[in-house]
Amino acid sequence: MNTRDFLDGKSFDGYKFFGAHKKDKGYIFRVLAPNADKVSIIGDFNDWQKQSMRKYSTGVFSITIDEAKVGDTYQYVISIGDKEVKKIDPFAKSIIYDEKASQIVDDSYKYKYKSKKNLPNNILQVYLGTLFNNKEKTADEIYRDIIKHAKENSYTSILLMPINEYQNYKSLGYSSLSLFSFSKRYGDITSFRKFVDECHKEKLQVIAELDISEFDPDECGLSDFDGTDLYNYKYEDIHFNYYEQANFDISGPVSKSYIKSAVDYNLNDYNLDGIYFSSIENSIYWQGDVARGINKNWVDFIKEINDYIVSKGAVSLASFNGIYNMDLGFSCVFDFKSKTLINMLKDEPYKRDYYKNHITDLIKNSDSNGILGFSYVDSYQYEANLAMKIYSDDKKLDQLKTLFLFLFSLKSPKILFMGDDCGDLRTFSQYQIFNFYGKSDKIPGLNDFYRDISKLYLDTDILSHPLSKTELLDVEGYSLYAYKRTYKNKSYLVVVNFTDIDYQIESSFNLDELINTQDLSYSGSGNINGNISKGDTINIEAYSSAIFKIK
């Protein structure tokens, strides 16, 4: 690493220099604190007795400790005048959050498999916290369950919610103590690296969410690190965000290099296939408020980060809690239109025709760069997960199957939060235990259907290829839609019924039915169509849907 580049905000590899690094004997520790008069280090290796670090003209403090070893914990003691404060290493790869101390980790693991550098098609979003609440399973067993479930359900990518260390369990991992620390709540760093390797062996992508807009304001962390605003804003009105977390000030060069280096570290050290940035409006607008205007520093910075991620052959994903049309260079963006589908399915059936313009827009303008589906936000908001939000108690299965068929009949990439593919009927909570293979509180038959419809989508260019075409067809009925999906010279007919009325439609084609939500194998009524000749009737029950091959 070039120290001058880091100080100028140009570095993507600060982690190769700062932090704890193994030497032939012991470890060398480096920390940037240009305003500090003195920095000492205390830890297991020196019986927590201060050892002064050498200061260089760049503001870097350094020391080599022969006795330091993997597993040792430590802190920096920053001295400014007569004031001392104990700090976590900003580049620590592990943090013992209840001790407010950094920890040296084993970096010996060598990856066997390469990352998968392609756009995701079907994304499983995972919150590791509820999985690791299950103390009866080891970390390796939990990671194997994730891989098994992803493979069985034809997911191409696993999207992990923030994996950096954090103090407040309610935060779900947002507002971390360091952008380089892997949370000990999720096993050790070696177990995680093995998990990523096994995913790549199984041809699964791994993408991690990185919260780059904010950090934990605890005195032990980055806030006023050397007595100055090295990472945070110095002005009180923008120092903290709406959630009372500290904002990164990327108008300062050190914050820029710190975040850039974190992006590269996640891609390289974890061998990830991409980075996901959520709620980007919190960065591009001052304090996340449209009325306060655009923060141009952040807009330019995000573009620079995305250019770098793409140059590394990785993917950059983002979500906005609202509609934002500026091109910031992301590979894919979550399509905000998906949320209107939830609103429609929460409504009584007779009101759903009011959403016709929205549905036809989704059908005609499905975009291979816009991710359709439902993230953890949809299983967290209003204290009701996806299945719980669906209208009625006894028809949730039929409506969820039709919702999934509709989504997978469009070419956009898909996302679903864990549990929603099997109709988990518990409100998401970070305190509960989640088990992919638990039987309680799940809708029978739904996961069987999800497995088949997602596999059909991935196996069929007609449905998933970016160059596939869609033609909306005229059909009479409330909340009833029919459209052709075509790739090259092959076509499918899709019929979707979002309302509680049975329909009979005269077919304009000779058809072979490929999948129907009312198939008995999906706990349906068994009223399906099979082969249909031109002029015959297509039967579509209430809340049902089907895909046919046009002969």
Structural summary, described in words:
The chain is α/β, with parallel strands linked by helices and 551 residues long. It contains 14 helices and 28 strands. The strands form six sheets. Strands 11-12-13-16-17-18-19-20 form an eight-stranded parallel β-barrel. Strands 3, 4, 7, 8, 9 and 10 form a six-stranded antiparallel sheet that branches. Helix 12 (396-408) packs parallel to helix 13 (446-459). The model has no long low-confidence stretch (mean pLDDT 94). Residues 476-550 form the Alpha-amylase/branching enzyme C-terminal all beta domain. One of its GO terms (biological process) is glycogen biosynthetic process. Catalyzes the formation of the alpha-1,6-glucosidic linkages in glycogen by scission of a 1,4-alpha-linked oligosaccharide from growing alpha-1,4-glucan chains and the subsequent attachment of the oligosaccharide to the alpha-1,6 position. Pfam families: Alpha-amylase_C, CBM_48.
Key phrases:
14 helices; 28 strands; TIM Barrel; single chain; Immunoglobulin-like; 6-stranded antiparallel β-sheet; 8-stranded parallel beta barrel; 3 domains; elongated; 551 residues; alpha/beta
